[in-house]
C-alpha cells in the first residue's frame, strides 16, 4: 500500500476553528502544531504527574507503514521545561479516537517554575513517520553477516 498524501481528520472541538487547525508553519516544517483544547488555564507544578490534554482532533491514517509521533515543541521544552509525560507519543495508523497530549513540567521540584498552559495554546507537534513492520523469525543463531556482537552503551567512548 502506498503512503497517503492526504489524511482524514475530524474536528472534535469546534473552538479549533477559531484557534486554528493544525497546519505546517513554514514551507518545509515537518510538524503540525497541536493545540491545548482546555476550558480554563491549566497549571502544571514542577515534577507533578503529567496531565492528558485533549487536542480536539481525531485522525485516521488508515495506511500500513505509517504512524504519527507527538513531540514536544523545542522552544517550550528547552526554554520553559514543558515536555511530554510519555517522552514521545506514538499514534497508531488505526487509532481513530481523540488524540491526547501528555503534558509534563520537567523543571526541578521546588524550583518554583510552575507552567500554565492556556486554552488554545500550541503545546506540542505532530509528525507523520513511515514505519517498517517486518515479520519476526525466531532462530537459534543469527545468520552470517556483519555483526557487532557485544558492545553498546558507550562502548566506543562517551
Ligand atoms: O501521546 C499519545 C500517545 C498515544 N495516544 C493514543 C494513540 C495511540 O494509537 C494510542 C495507544 O498508544 P500506545 O500504543 O503508545 O499506548 P499503550 O500504552 O501501549 O496502550 P494500548 O494498549 O492502548 O496500545 O493512544 C495519544 O492520543 N497520545
TrEMBL record:
A GO biological process held by the record: dUMP biosynthetic process
Keyword Transmembrane helix listed: no
Positions of the dUTPase-like domain: 19-157
A molecular function GO annotation: dUTP diphosphatase activity
SUPFAM superfamilies: dUTPase-like
Keywords for this protein: Hydrolase, Magnesium, Metal-binding, Nucleotide metabolism
Record's catalysed reaction(s): dUTP + H2O = dUMP + diphosphate + H(+)
Enzyme Commission identifier(s): 3.6.1.23
Family indicated by similarity: Belongs to the dUTPase family.
Name recorded for this polypeptide: dUTP diphosphatase
Source species taxonomy: Bacteria, Pseudomonadati, Pseudomonadota, Betaproteobacteria, Burkholderiales
Gene that encodes it: dut
Amino acid at each position: 500500500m502506498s503512503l497517503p498524501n492526504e489524511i482524514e481528520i475530524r474536528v472534535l472541538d469546534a473552538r479549533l476553528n477559531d484557534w486554528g487547525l493544525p497546519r505546517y508553519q513554514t514551507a518545509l516544517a515537518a510538524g503540525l502544531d497541536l493545540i491545548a483544547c482546555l476550558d480554563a488555564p491549566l497549571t502544571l507544578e514542577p515534577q507533578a504527574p503529567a496531565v492528558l490534554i485533549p487536542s480536539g482532533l481525531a485522525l485516521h491514517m488508515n495506511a500500513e507503514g505509517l504512524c504519527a509521533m507527538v513531540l514536544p515543541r523545542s522552544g517550550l521544552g528547552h526554554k520553559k521545561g514543558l515536555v511530554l509525560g510519555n517522552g514521545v507519543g506514538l499514534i497508531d495508523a488505526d487509532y481513530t479516537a481523540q488524540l491526547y497530549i501528555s503534558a509534563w513540567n520537567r523543571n526541578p521540584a521546588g524550583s518554583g517554575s510552575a507552567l500554565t498552559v492556556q486554552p488554545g495554546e500550541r503545546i506540542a507537534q505532530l509528525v507523520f513517520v513511515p514505519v517498517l513492520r517486518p515479520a519476526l523469525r525466531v532462530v537459534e543463531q543469527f545468520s552470517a553477516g556483519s555483526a557487532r556482537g557485544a558492545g553498546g552503551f558507550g562502548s566506543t567512548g562517551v
